[in-house]
Amino acid sequence: MSENLRVAVIGAGRMGADHIQRLHRRIHGADVAAVADIDLDRAKAAIAGIPGARAFAMAAEAYESGDVNAVVIATPGFLHEQALLEALELDIPILCEKPLTTHAESAWKIVEAEQKLGRQRIQVGFMRRFDAEYAQLGGLVRSGELGELLMLHCRHRNPDTPPGFTNEMLINDSVVHEFDVIRYLTGEEITSVQVRLGKATSKAPAGQHDPQHVLIETEFGVLVDVEIFVNAQFGYEVGTQAVFEDGIVDIGNDGGPYVRRAGRWGGVVTPSFIERFGAAYDVEVQTWADAALRGEIGGPSAWDGYATAACCEAGVEAQKSGERVAVVLNQKPALYRASAALGEGDRLPRP
Ligand code: ISE
What we know:
Structural class: alpha/beta
Number of helices: 10
Radius of gyration: 20 Å
Distance between the termini: 54 Å
Helix content: 25-40%
CATH class of the largest domain: Alpha Beta
Bound molecules: (2R,3S,4s,5R,6S)-2,3,4,5,6-pentahydroxycyclohexanone
Oligomer: single chain
Number of strands: 15
CATH architecture of the largest domain: 2-Layer Sandwich
Strand content: 15-25%
Largest sheet: 7 strands, mixed
CATH topology of the largest domain: Dihydrodipicolinate Reductase, domain 2
């Protein structure tokens, strides 16, 4: 009998479908046992060609099949709270796409439910931590090789937005990644968020003010500015310039073949996050599966999900007020202290 994880993927939309193929084709130690989507036809289409996988309309039906011992949650963020509570009830390993939940209060409920289990079951899908360049930058910060990290300049550009992408989602769905990598890179919590709305593109759908300029501060005073521009037309770009005492580091520039042809030179712009972070998703899901088989998590925890949810809440308030809004967190529970989720433990206090 296979010792592999028997994974239920909840949600067969863009990200869910991508994870289903990833689990089926590239991840060792995990099989797709079930796919649940309220659109049953979409679930059926998603399991085509995957031997032994079954399609359901509801997560509960997948669990009741008796053939599932791990779950990947890839539904829209506003459905995560219920899906997480249901999976925690079963005490199985969970990989939950970001955001953990869309509000700090519901994210805290999840943290409390996990604490009752007494062990960490939830890994949050902040894939940038598994991107080679972000990981190298994190290593540089921690090595102290370039002195202290002073500032980060982040750019987050998407070609366009799917229907229903609201103004709040620029923060909750997109800048949430910056909140996570800032915490990952600095090892510090974020203390305030301010959002400035300047000249807007005519290419944004009604109701969205795009681009936005987000100013963020961490507990030891690292200043961060984020350009979030989700209707940038030209393609996909996520990158950061890190300013150290002894050097400047840039990550996220398009690479790939540099072609000279027919009197022109150039390369290809990354089209979307699926290509930009494809390799990072593979490492993320493999790390999760390996850790799950050991009864552990291998990446960002429910605490990270809660802390970023609190940042998002402050960010959405700041979008409305234009003011600098403080991020206030509950005390970190013992379960998450000195957790290996960041890969390097908590930041040591400064002298
Ligand atoms: C999307 O959900 C992602 O997670 C992408 O990484 C991000 O760039 C995009 O803005 C989000 O909508």
